[in-house]
Amino acid sequence: MLLHFLAPASLQQPVVLAWSTVFVAVCLQALPFLVLGVALSAAISTLVPPSFFTRALPRRPALAVPVAGVAGVVLPGCECASVPVAGSLVRRGVTPAAALAFLLAAPAINPVVLVATAVAFPGQPEMVAARFLASLGVALVMGWLWTLLGRSEWLQLARLPAAAPGLSRLAGFREAMAHDLVHAGGFLVVGGAAAATLGVLVPRSWLEQVAASPVLAVLVLAALAVLLAICSEADAFVAASLTSFSLTARLAFLVVGPAVDVKLIALQAGTFGRGFALRFAPVTFGVAVLLAVGVGAVLL
To answer: Which regions span the lipid bilayer (predicted)?
Structure first.
C-alpha cells in the first residue's frame, strides 16, 4: 500500500506484475485445500474419538506406515491440506511414521491428481502409473525411515488453545479450525512469497539449455518443483508443457513437488517445528529423486 502512494509506477514493472501474479496464483490455488485440511484437522481433533485410530491402524509402526500411505488415496487435496491433518493425527496418538506417510501420500496419489496426470499426458498411462508408484514409494520409505531413525524430540507440534470448560464439540471444532487456519495461513503466505520470488528469477532459456543433460535435467526439474510450489492438482499440466525434458525428468518434477516445496516446508515448520522441517525436507528430496529416476528407468 505504501508503494502505491510513493512509487505507483514501480508496481507496473513487468517483474513486479509477474511476481504478484505468481504469488496470488500460488496462494489462491492452495487456499481451498488448506481450508479443507484445516477443517479435517479440526474434525479429527474435536469430533473423532482417539480410540478410532487405535482400531483403524496396526499397532506396529512398520505395518501402520503402508496402511496410512494407502489411505492417502481417499483424500482429494493437495499438500497444504495434508500437513494440518497429519499434525492432528499425531496429536491424537497416531505414530508419527504413519502420519508422515499419510502426509506424503495424500497429495500425490489421490484420484484428483491421478486423473489430472492422465489428462495432462494423454495416451501415456505409464506416466500415471509411474507417478503413483514413485510417490507411494516416497511415502513408505520416509515412514519406515522415521520408524528406524526418527526421534520424538524432533517434533515440536504447535500448541492448540485449551478448550473452554463446557464447550460443545461444534464450538470446539470452530475454535480449533480458526486457530489452525490463522496459524497455517501465515506460513502459506510466506511460502507463496518465496515461490513467487524464485519463480520470476528462473529464466526459461536456461531450462532449455540444461534439458539435454539427463542428470542435470532431473536435478533441475526437481529443484524447480521445490521452488515453484505448484499445487499437486495442477503440476501435471506444467510438467506436460516442458516438452524439451525427458519423461523421467518430468516424473521427478511430479514426485518431488507434492513432497517438498517451499510453501510445504514453511507449513511443516509451522506445524511440526523448524528442526523437523530442516531434517525432513532434504531427506525427502533425495528419496523422491532416487525413486523417480528408478521408476522412470523401468516404466518410461
So the answer is: 62-85, 97-121, 128-149, 181-203, 210-230, 276-299
Helical spans, DSSP H, in 92-234: 96-109, 111-120, 125-149, 169-201, 204-210, 214-228
What lies within 8 Å, CB to CB, of 220 at 6+ separation is 207, 210, 211, 249
Q: Check: CB of residue 248 under 8 Å from CB of residue 300.
A: yes
The answer for residues whose C-beta is within 8 angstroms of residue 117's C-beta and 6 or more apart is: 127, 128, 131, 236, 254
Domain ranges of the chain: 13-154+166-299
- For 192-216, write each residue's pLDDT tens digit: 777 677 667 777 677 678 888 899 9
The per-residue pLDDT for range 182-192, each reduced to its tens digit, is: 766 776 677 67
State how far the Cα of 76 lies from the Cα of 113, in Å rounded to an integer. Answer: 8
Grid cell listed for 299: 516404466
Give the pLDDT confidence of 223-235 residue by residue, as tens digits. 988 987 777 877 8
Residue 243 has which C-alpha cell? 516438452
Distance, CA of 174 to CA of 169 (rounded, Å): 9
